[in-house]
Amino acid sequence: MVTGASSGIGAAAARALAAEGAGVVLVARRMDRLEALAAELRARGAAVAAAAADMRREADVIGMVALARERFGGVDVLVNAAGLGRRAPLASAPTELWREMLEVNVLGLAIATREAIQDMERRGVAGHVVHVSSMAGHRIPSPDAAMYAATKFAVRALTEGLRQELRARQSPIRVTAVSPGHVETEFAAIFAGRPEAAAETYGRFKVLEARDVAAAIVWIVTQPPHVEVHDVLVRPTAQRN
Ligand SMILES: NC(=O)c1ccc[n+]([C@@H]2O[C@H](COP(=O)([O-])OP(=O)(O)OC[C@H]3O[C@@H](n4cnc5c(N)ncnc54)[C@H](OP(=O)(O)O)[C@@H]3O)[C@@H](O)[C@H]2O)c1
Question: 88-120: b or e for each residue (b if 16 or more CB lie within 10 Å)?
């Protein structure tokens, strides 16, 4: 199951996992995008389902796991790629911009993870949860990105916290974060609130492609059962900060 599958890293992860033979549940709000990707993957022989879900709505998140149970018997791997950043200075931004980031990047991710883990445990599956975090979970990238960074620092805490919970009860389920630097997706335009920001952000030097991050995700989930990758930090070679 891949959240944020309508665009960017999530879409690339869904493609890469389907290419490895996984059945895939695609999740996002834009169902037209999901249907187009589902058609592409089915044409290559993959088993695919699509679920419309707003990660800010708990009922939607619970519903997407129910759909995975119905269509595939459950969730073996959850990739939490749904997320966004907003330019939102701490001294001036409207609360709503902060709330959206916190609800999608932190709460939505935590609810999806809880539901997937309960599903894995009910079936006795040694599953894997991957959080798409960010280099912004390791340092503050710019003064207007502190709340975004706070959500990604939170994802880092949730990754280590979940690891500790799982180890405390000797669960074979693994949890991993992947922390990219700049990746060419819809992220930059959404962050700045202007479409031209994409070319400005991604045109300065060769940034990562979404499939570069997807390759890391495939590597993470195909390690043998005794290997738990904790966090993969990956920057474009030319990125300075
Ligand atoms: N691009 C970068 O430079 C970069 C760097 C580090 C980390 N990241 C992280 O990578 C993750 C994926 O972002 P991306 O770069 O691939 O950006 P993207 O192209 O904008 O994709 C974001 C995805 O999240 C989904 N999403 C956003 N809000 C949602 C909501 N309320 N409910 C359900 N889905 C929602 C979007 O789907 P819908 O709009 O269709 O719902 C879309 O599929 C994010 O967590 C981001 O923080 C990105």
Answer: beeeeeeeebbebbbbbbbbbbbbbbebbbebb
Pocket residues for ligand 1 (CB within 6 Å)?
4-10, 28-30, 33, 53-56, 81-85, 104-105, 132, 134, 180, 182-183, 185-187, 190
- Tens-place pLDDT, residues 51-92: 999 999 999 999 999 999 999 999 999 999 999 999 999 999
Residue 80 lies in domain: 2-234
170 alpha carbon – ligand 1 mean position (Å): 32
Question: The CATH number of the domain where 169 resides is what?
Answer: 3.40.50.720
| Whole-structure pTM value | 0.99
Q: What is the tens place of the pLDDT at every residue in 12-29?
A: 999 999 999 999 999 999
